Amino acid sequence: MTKTSQLLPASVCDKAAWLIAACALIFVLKFSLLPALLSGLLVYELVHIITPLIARKFPTKKPSNRSKLWAVGILVVIVVSLLALAGAGLVAFFRSDAGSLTVLLAKMAQIIEDSRKILPSWIVEHLPADAIAFKEQAAAWLRSHADELQGVGKEAGRITAHVLIGMIIGGILAVREAVAMDNFKPFARALAGRGELFSDAFRRVVFAQLRIAAINTTFTGIYLAIVLPLMGIHLPLVKTMIAITFVIGLIPVIGNLISNTMIVVVSLSQSLGVAIASLAYLIIIHKFEYFLNARIVGSQIRANAWELLIAMLCMEAAFGLAGIVAAPIYYAYIKSELRARNLV
User: Fold this and answer.
1) Residue 152 has pLDDT above 60, yes or no
2) Is residue 24 predicted with pLDDT exceeding 90?
3) Cα separation, 111 vs 274, whole angstroms
4) C-alpha 180, offset from chain centre
5) What is the 3-state secondary structure (H, E, C) of the chain?
6) pTM of the entire predicted model
7) Is the dihedral of CA 210, 211, 212, 214 positive or negative?
8) In angstroms, rounded to a whole number, what is the distance separating the alpha carbons of residues 161 and 165?
9) Burial of 154 (0-12, 13-18, 19+ CB in 10 A)
10) Closest by Cα among 253, 249, 255, 245 to 309
11) Which of 231, 249, 270, 252 is nearest to 309 (CA)?
12) Tens of pLDDT along 258-312?
């Protein structure tokens, strides 16, 4: 789109498409369809990323629409199968004894309750009464939520069905686009434009955050599984903490805060010194990652951390946990729309 076209007044079709897009995005959050949307977009984008790589690796002479259809269709089946296997493996790990979230939460609750035995007496003496009460409430909260995790089977089944349906829809759209020609009429073209901008925002946010989560998990894994054991310190549930660090690290900003808190609390099970060392290490690597995040995410969505935090705060207030997950993508999409009109 040229700069001249950006400055043209929006047509009736454009305005209608924006309204429908806004209603659709709210509908997705209101009726818990976010897993389906994200899984469908993930399959769609993965196919679009992998297809050109395969085409360059195995060049052919002007493939026909039928051959392209078969090639992309096979690729879709492979991508959906691999994602389904990866998801099933992750769920199985968190349900196992080695990766149980219930065990981790119960362990954290026990550590919080016993923290007065670990902390030096001079610190305990100067703690206000309400701080101790807060620790007891936190322990009770963790215990209650640890029990609740055992009863999420029905909700997990519904989400799994939505994810599978979303992946199938994303695959169908990827196959269709491999052979379809863009001969849309004005309103359809306006709607397709909104879809392209949103999928582009998804790709930029999710794959940038995926790289950040992988880097953060690598450094955290080195510390928990290599550095501490070499020093004779063995924390409980290391595999679970590494897996959670990666999964929750996919949420910008807040994900790192949650994983860091978890690691520091578990480190208290050894000693106050280990907890302080864990906190210092995490601060150091996150200082390094701060510049990395600015380079990766900032260059992708052109947003500062405070912008994302405000978006996530507002979305959480309106839609709960789903709002936190969707906020970076929605915000990147809105900025893309504004940038396309040369407004920001």
Assistant:
1) no
2) yes
3) 13
4) 31
5) CCHHHHCCCCCHHHHHHHHHHHHHHHHHHHCCCHHHHHHHHHHHHHHHHHHHHHHHHCCCCCCCHHHHHHHHHHHHHHHHHHHHHHHHHHHHHHHCCCCCHHHHHHHHHHHHHCHHHHCCHHHHHCCCHHHHHHHHHHHHHHHHHHHHHHHCHHHHHHHHHHHHHHHHHHHHHHHHHHHCCCCCCHHHHHHHHHHHHHHHHHHHHHHHHHHHHHHHHHHHHHHHHHHHHHCCCCCCCHHHHHHHHHHHCCCCCHHHHHHHHHHHHHHCCCCHHHHHHHHHHHHHHHHHHHHHHHHHHHHHHCCCHHHHHHHHHHHHHHHCHHHHHHHHHHHHHHHHHHHHCCCC
6) 0.71
7) positive
8) 6
9) exposed
10) 253
11) 252
12) 788 888 888 877 777 888 888 888 877 766 666 665 556 555 666 676 787 788 8
Give dist(CA 27, CA 54) in Å, integer.
36
CA distance 287 to 248: 19
Tens of pLDDT, residue by residue over 182-202, are 677 888 888 988 999 999 999
Instruction: Please give the span between the terminal C-alpha atoms of the chain, in angstroms, as a whole number.
Output: 16
CB 107 within 8 A of CB 237: yes
Q: Stretch 159-187: mean pLDDT, rounded?
A: 79
Contact 235, 270 (CB under 8 A): yes
Specify the higher pLDDT residue, 263 or 93: 263
CA distances from 257 to 248, 250, 301, 344 (A): 10, 12, 21, 30
pLDDT at 98: 55
Q: Which residue has the tokens 């769609």?
A: 44
The pLDDT value recorded for residue 151 is 47
255: Cβ contacts below 8 Å, ≥ 6 apart: 213, 248, 249
CA 64, 70, 73, 79 dihedral sign is negative
